[in-house]
Design a protein that fits this description.
Blueprint: H1 2-17, E1 33-35, E2 39-45, E3 48-61, H2 64-72, H3 74-87, H4 101-116, E4 121-133, H5 146-149, H6 180-183
Antiparallel strand pairs: 1-3, 2-3, 3-4
Length: about 190
């Protein structure tokens, strides 16, 4: 019973660690799927860099023997992919932060076919495509609504000032000089 439990537990970890395929994407027959290295593509609009698309994908070969040929040329294929996504935009026409996966599929398959042969590569399967903005302020994630970011919105009616404490003769920690006690190394606790 214990072995069965351990086997089921290991199976659940393996299934949880594997990313789900994107909606509508189908892998090829067993032995024809080649996991590709991550691809990082710049996303821009009007010549201005907006961020990067992080792309996780698999290539589907026409047969298991074609998959072996693709794996042997994987470094050359990845180099062609990097050159392709840096040479021409891969964004949708109406949304510069979204990847046009149909366009990208055609371009990457063409690049791979030039390297290993047209009969060996069938299609790309995009597992995950994620956009990361260049500047954190470009994202709407984790931004407080305007009502919460206004002064006094959190219940405080007074805003702290930089002169508080200075009127009482206290030193600001950022301008204080280190004392001799803090510049000495700490004594070993075992002595």
């Amino acid at each position: 019973m214990r072995r069965l439990f351990v086997a089921l537990l290991l199976l659940s970890f393996v299934a949880a660690g594997r990313p789900a395929l994107a909606a509508g994407a189908e892998e090829g027959a067993p032995g024809t799927n080649i996991e590709m290295p991550f691809l990082i593509a710049p996303m821009s609009k009007d010549g201005k860099l907006l961020g990067y698309a992080y792309i996780s994908s698999k290539m589907v070969a026409s047969s298991p023997s074609a998959a072996i040929d693709v794996r042997e040329k994987l470094a050359f294929i990845q180099d062609a992919f990097v050159r392709d996504v840096n040479a021409e935009p891969i964004a949708k026409a109406d949304d510069p932060r979204a990847v046009d996966t149909a366009l990208l599929n055609d371009r990457l398959v063409d690049a791979a076919r030039r390297i290993v042969g047209s009969e060996k590569v069938v299609r790309m399967v995009f597992i995950a495509v994620q956009f990361a903005p260049l500047h954190p302020g470009d994202s709407t994630l984790n931004m407080a609504p305007a009502s919460e970011s206004a002064p006094g919105a959190n219940g405080n009616t007074t805003a702290p000032t930089s002169t508080q404490g200075a009127d009482k003769g206290q030193n600001d920690a950022s301008t204080a000089t280190p004392s001799a006690a803090t510049s000495k190394p700490a004594q070993d606790a075992t002595q």
